[in-house]
Amino acid sequence: MNEQNSEKGQRELKPETEESELVEWIKSILIAIIIAVFIKTFIFNTTYVLGNSMHPTLHEKDRLFANKMSLYFSGPKRGDIVLLDAPDTDDKKYIKRVIGVEGDVIEIEDGLVYLNGQLLEEDYIEDGIYTHIYNESKWEVPKGHIFVLGDNREAGASKDSRSFNTIPKSSLKGVAKFRFYPFGENFGIIE
Question: What is the pLDDT of the chain when averaged over all its residues?
Answer without folding.
Answer: 84
